[in-house]
């Protein structure tokens, strides 16, 4: 299996950003990390191995990228007004640097890109797919929270609102809504076992918001034995990415 580490320059971030890429051919999939923010997280926790046969066979190209989640969301030393600005810089990195890099790597300037993530990574996947549905055509969101105010301790302003899918989706209408309906789909997956408290409710509530707007989505709640752990996310990724790729799981 092709495997390579890259450092992508980013003017917005003011530094080079870690990226791992796997596979030599196939539709591109970006995996955002959880609260660790580390690009190698998926490989370290067996997610790459779970998809290795598809990567080796040229059925999928996987890009696992770092994030600045600690600056933007998880560390509370700085005020939320400052922290959401850091998230916006990461958004610029994704759109201005990561997307062009992937399209150049795939040798197709308009190739659709899929997204995925677990826990906080699921929030990133959903948010980017909804804000840029022409670029990001599919998002597999596993064990995520979709109301950003729980990470801002309830603080809200326009910057947080427009990065809070649970809030801004309710206000989408017109041509933008039709664009989302035409181009992208979200899959919300969550277990109902240990450490999924809050995530279950967010997935259900967010699914209702998407349903009210006619946005293509699927809610898939796994059993009460399914916990907030990598071993389960490996299985969930295998099932749902297999459906997306139209491959046997």
What does this molecule look like?
Helices cover 43% and strands 20% of the residues. Strands 1-2-4-3-5-6-7-8 form an 8-stranded mixed β-sheet, with helices on both faces. It starts with a strand and ends with a helix. The protein has a single domain, classed as Rossmann fold, CATH 3.40.50. The mean pLDDT is 96. By secondary structure, it is of the alpha/beta class.
Provide a quick synopsis of the model.
The chain has a single domain (3-245), classed as Alpha/Beta hydrolase fold, catalytic domain (Rossmann fold). Helix content is 43%, strand content 20%.
CATH class: Alpha Beta
- What is the CA–CA distance across the termini? 19 Å
Strand content: 15-25%
Beta strand count: 8
**Please, what is the average pLDDT?**
96
What form results from the Cα inertia axes? globular
Please give the CATH architecture: 3-Layer(aba) Sandwich
Structural descriptors:
Rossmann fold; alpha/beta; 11 helices; globular; 8-stranded mixed β-sheet; 249 residues
Spell out the blueprint of helices and strands.
Layout: E1 3-10, E2 15-22, E3 28-32, H1 41-44, H2 47-50, H3 52-56, E4 61-65, H4 69-74, H5 80-105, E5 113-118, H6 120-131, E6 136-142, H7 158-161, H8 165-168, H9 174-183, E7 185-190, H10 199-213, E8 217-221, H11 230-245
Parallel strand pairs: 3-4, 3-5, 5-6, 6-7, 7-8
Antiparallel strand pairs: 1-2, 2-4
């Amino acid at each position: 299996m092709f495997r390579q580490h890259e450092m992508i320059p980013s003017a917005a971030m003011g530094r080079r950003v870690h990226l791992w890429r796997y596979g030599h051919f196939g539709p591109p999939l970006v995996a955002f990390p959880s609260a660790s923010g580390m690009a190698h997280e998926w490989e370290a926790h067996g997610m790459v191995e779970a998809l290795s046969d598809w990567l080796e066979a040229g059925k999928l190209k996987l890009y696992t990228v770092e994030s600045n989640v600690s600056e933007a969301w998880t560390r509370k030393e700085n005020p939320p007004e400052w922290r959401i600005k850091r998230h916006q810089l990461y958004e610029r990195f994704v759109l201005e640097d990561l997307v062009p890099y992937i399209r150049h790597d795939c040798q197709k300037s308009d190739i659709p890109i899929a997204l995925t993530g677990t826990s906080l990574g699921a929030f990133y996947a959903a948010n980017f797919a909804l804000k840029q549905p022409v670029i990001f055509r599919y998002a597999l969101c596993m064990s995520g929270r979709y109301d950003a105010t729980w990470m801002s301790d309830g603080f809200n302003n326009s910057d947080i609102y427009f990065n809070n899918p649970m809030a801004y989706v309710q206000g989408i209408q017109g041509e933008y809504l039709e664009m989302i309906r035409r181009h992208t789909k979200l899959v919300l997956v969550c277990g109902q076992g240990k450490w999924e408290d809050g995530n279950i409710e967010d997935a259900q509530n967010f699914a209702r918001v998407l349903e009210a707007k006619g946005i293509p989505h699927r809610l898939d709640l796994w059993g009460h034995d399914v916990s907030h752990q990598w071993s389960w996310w490996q299985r969930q990724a295998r099932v749902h990415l297999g459906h997306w790729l139209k491959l046997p799981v």
